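2 proteins. here.
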Amino acid sequence: MTPPLLTRRTLLVTAAGAAASGLVARTIPAAARARTHNFVMIGDWGRRGHYEQTALGERMGRVAADHGSLYTVSVGDNFYDDGVTSVDDPQWRTSFEDIYTADSLKSRWRVILGNHDYRGDVDAQLKYGQAVDSRWYLPARYYVMRDQLADGSTADFFYIDTNPFISRYRGTKVRIDGQDTATQLRWLEQGLATSDADWKIVVGHHPVYTAEGRFDEPELIAAIPPLLKRHRVTIYVNGHIHNLQYIERDGIHYINNGAGSRIDPVGVAQRGGFTAPEQHGFMTVAMTRDSFDFAFVGLAGNRLFGRQIPRTA
């Protein structure tokens, strides 16, 4: 089991200089765990409880308890429409603390930033876990964490910041100016190249490829898949598109998990993929040394779709 987290308004102690370097590692203890390494993921959720956010949060809490979830991953767009203004912004309560109240969701949240978060005070989101609520873990704009799985294998999760790669945001309310994509890509390349983990998984806010094809991101297609292929990364998870989609391209599994509150229409899946029209939802993951088993879970608790993805040797 993951050790209890510190209570609200206490400080979370982290390694010196971690946020500045953008590289942070934590390991979940190996002892006394289930056969699989279980967690839940959600994206595009922070709407003060509206658009079924509250109901879906309650469902996720029940499913996370049954699933034995160790932690929650947020794939960005944590607060709509304009992020938060400070660590004291009321949205921390109305969109986060008052929504995800189940004990199963009180363990650590591993968080990344979405484009709507960049319309507000990003530094407030970086500081919140240390200053206010220690379950919120966002030590830097991009970072890596290593997990030891129940069977003794390891997984390195690379949580990246895709926002600066999207050139259409420059000069808009999405304040990405000054972010250095070349430095981030070098960090990712080096991290993937030197990782000796059994699994290497990349999590970003924006999609690379989508099953319906309309929202493929050319700038990310140019930057990310070459690294994934070169370093045998088989899984990329994202949000941003407000629905649930899955597609495999060139041996890489692209999972779009952006249905945490308001959902948008989605087209018919192309290229052998999957889309879930008009479905709120989140993801469950169960990992072993040899498989990454994920499922999309709907508002009613029903399994909408899933895949057992084998590890690349």
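next one coming up
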Amino acid sequence: MQVNLMEFWPRIWEATYQTLLMVGISLFAATLIGLPLGIILVVTRHEGLLENKPFFNGFSTVVNFFRSIPFIILLVAILPFTRLIVGSSIGTAAAVVPLVIFSAPYIARLVESSLLEVKPGVIEAAESMGATPWQIVRRVYIPEALSSIILNLTIATIGLVGASAMAGFVGGGGLGDLAISYGYQRFETDIMIATVLLLVFIVQITQTVGNFASKKIRRQ
């Protein structure tokens, strides 16, 4: 049965809202996890503020392990854990769990990359003034790297948009679920095109906002 695209728009908007909700919550939670993980990677590495080579090597390996798992495999592999956390393995709430686990180590590496861009001379100057490692992280590392961190979080957000679409394979809701349920399984080309265009629009807006915020902070 052919679906009238004009009559279907309310469902498309609902799916768009679900996608934005998934991405927003996942990004917030993954950043809360990934930011401290990235800081730990920087301060414990060779010549870091709290250099600890054995810890760094082990911790880095764990981060790389989770980062290397393809999202679609992770999505299926942790279904029992997802069901334990949210009481269900389908729906928008259920999709957030694997999205957070997938993106947190990725954000950790992005944060690490941003912090490593801070000039060593700035860190040395803070140390010579008697600043503690925590003070250097809070008052030097993060402010100096903030513009880069925002750009990298923009990249992470775009990755989450793509991953949220893949969550549709297991009934995760959002535009991906709509595209699979109607655009692919029912051969509704119009709906497939509409969902793809909306995803592209979300990505473009995200990149534009991220670029603007990064430049604004860099000028200050």
